[in-house]
Here is the input.
Amino acid sequence: MKTTLPILLLLILTAFFSVGCASMATTPQQRQELAAIPYPADAQYAPNPDIVAQREGHNLRLINRTPWEYTDIQLWINQQYVKRIDTIKIGTNNLYSLETCINEFEQPFPTGTFLKPERSFPVVLTELYDPISEKRYRLNSPPVRDDPGLFW
Here is the structure.
């Protein structure tokens, strides 16, 4: 019994730290492909859809309140990090890992860690870009109210 306890503890700690270190949620090829996509700064804005982008820790939930699904679209965060999305379904069941959003240097969106939460970036601007119509859509991104401030 005494020899199995340290082994069990070692396995638990290894599993805990391996989950925390698995921040690269994309393959090197996927990161290269996403890093090669330029931000569509010259694309025209279309009317804003009724989609809310809500941050939930290391994830971003898109709440599609429109009667349409959006397909083959790019998600841009803070004009720097991009993710390809196959389908944004109607409703709240659209949860995406922020760590799969990649910038031009092949780096994932900084979400912070347990021991370094200050390394997390806020989600300030969330946009969708349709490469077929070459239109951008701004999403409603309410501020995260985890830390009650003076005005909350």
Q: What stands out?
A: Confidence is low (pLDDT under 50) at residues 14-24, 148-152. The longest helix spans residues 4-21. The beta strands are 44-45, 51-56, 59-64, 70-77, 81-88, 95-97, 126-130, 135-138. The helical segments are 4-21, 28-35.
